[in-house]
Amino acid sequence: MNFDTLLALREDTRTRRITDLFDTDPDRAKGFSAGFDGLFFDYSKTAIDAGIRAELIALAEQAGLAERRAAMFRGDRINRTEGRAVLHAALRAGKDAVIAVDGQDVMPEVRATRARMEIFAEAVRSGAFAGPGGQITDVVNIGIGGSDLGPVMGVAALAPYCDGPRVHFVSNVDGAQIHDVLAPLNPKTTLVIVASKTFTTTETMTNAQTAKRWLAAGVAEPAAQFVALSTAEDKTAEFGIPPDRVFGFEDWVGGRYSMWGPIGLSLMIAIGADDFAAFLEGGASMDAHFRAAPLMDNLPVLLALVGIWHHQICGYPTRAVLPYEQRLSRLPAYLQQLEMESNGKSVAMDGTPLGYVSGPVVWGEPGTNGQHAFYQLIHQGTAVVPCEFMVGARGHEPDLAHQHRLLVANCLAQSEALMCGRSFDVALTEAHAKGLSGKAAEQLARHRTFPGNRPSTTLVYDLLTPRRLGQIVALYEHRVFVEGVILGINSFDQWGVELGKELATALQPLLEGADGGDTKDGSTRMLVEYLRHMM
Ligand code: F6P
User: Fold this and answer.
1) Is the CB of 145 within 6 Å of ligand 1?
2) Do 113 and 59 fall into the same domain?
3) 81 located within any domain
């Protein structure tokens, strides 16, 4: 991809302040924002002007976005390194959808699995499916990465809609986590979901065996309290889970895109089938918008273009996601996998090295907590961190509406402060007002000056409902897709996680005392020895 024109435009922006853009264009806020069905995206607090936006849109067009988007929704095998289609959108497609992979409509199977999930989830919720101790009180989802982060994020986000059994998550191979989760639970009323696309992931399979032993110590038939979510039905059978409690899916659902289907079962049990259907419908509505809206009004495209502008063109190395919504506390972690596993690549589709940087580091925390932790650096540090704020107009607690207004005020204040800053002169006047003069006033004013001109975007919605969450998740999925298309990479494989897995398998025996450490580098050999003697 040729970024030269945009890099030249970037040079022009170096001496300009974002606030000047508002002075020269009184309608800037309106012109550099877009809405869709209850979502509103403001990107006017960036240095992007009409010329830059036109170039960014041209970039997406030259990258073949329209054709690549059509190919994805059509079921083409666009994940070329794994020879797979990319059809997570099929999991949320409407009742009349027909989507074919190799000429075969996949929708009947998708609908049949969803119907089985709904029956099972409602049976767990109603008590029709029970444990030996009666109604299921607790559900433990064992999975990692894409088999964990989506449901974890969703259950926290939709807490006001969670009226089923308590849902817990175990992901880490660190035995501390499963110990702490299982310790207070009653095996007689606990359902264990083993969520793993491949059913081979070491962390998940190790935790699943631990859960099996825990159940076996408390109930006569531990297998009766297991459910599997996987593409590998041979392996789920080997584990001892009967087919009627296996919810399968196809290899065209990537792990980090999988919360819409069986991997979302824990969320469905928590919120119920109707609310889960609303979540799917929200995702489907974003799919329709992404496919039909002109690029200039297309929310996933606009988010992607802002991302490309800040990372590839301006060279800002990270992107902060800052939801002013405590229940979205796990969204940054979810987006870390979605964005960094998808677009953290260094070769193009054809295997040739990229001539530019790939995806940014994504990080964040909910506001207002982040304000009292890392915002100092965002406001006054030397590195520019583009911030993506997110806030709902309302909360679910009408009696605490005054707190919600305070939350919203904080969100807006941060983006205002980032853009407008506080000049040295204003800081000096303030120092004088405090009774300081001369050098002392100047010195304090330097510390109290905010450079401003720091870019941010704000995504606004009304209320975080299941449907709204579906829209937001699909919005980010498509944003990652568009960025990947512009970068010319495969956003749907993740070979970069393999080497560490292989080496961990080889290192475990060394920690248990086996020979062979001499093949390791000096540092690793030393650490193995050091740890082994303390184990
Ligand atoms: O760490 C890589 C990865 O393959 C992720 O892409 C995936 O979400 C996670 O591991 C879990 O994989 P599985 O669902 O097969 O257990």
Assistant:
1) yes
2) no
3) no
The answer to whether residues 479 and 307 touch, using CB atoms and an 8 Å cutoff, is yes
Q: What is the ipTM of this complex?
A: 0.97
Among 339, 341, 477, 483, which one carries the catalytic annotation?
341
Structure tokens at 332: 């940054």
- Domain co-membership, 254 together with 145: yes
Can you tell me the distance from the alpha carbon of 84 to that of 79, in angstroms, rounded to the nearest whole number?
5
Residues 295, 396, single domain; the answer is yes
What spacing in Å lies between the alpha carbon of 494 and ligand 1's midpoint?
9
Question: Which tens digits make up the pLDDT trace of 61-71?
Answer: 999 999 999 99
For residue 355, tell me if it sits in a domain.
yes
Q: CB-side exposure of 513: number of CA atoms within 13 Å?
A: 3
How far apart CA 387 and CA 98 sit, in angstroms, is: 39
- Judge whether 372 counts as a catalytic residue: yes
* 341 catalytic residue (yes or no): yes
| Average pLDDT value for residue range 226-246 | 95
Nearest-atom index, ligand 1, CA of 258: 8
The CA-based diameter of the chain, rounded to the nearest angstrom, is: 81
Do the bridges between strand 134-135 and strand 130-131 make them parallel or antiparallel, or are there none, so unpaired? antiparallel
Number of separate domains in the chain: 4
pTM: 0.97
Residue range(s) defining the domain that contains residue 486:
3-14+31-76+279-409+456-492
Residue 119 is predicted with a pLDDT of: 98
Question: Which amino acid belongs to residue 115?
Answer: A
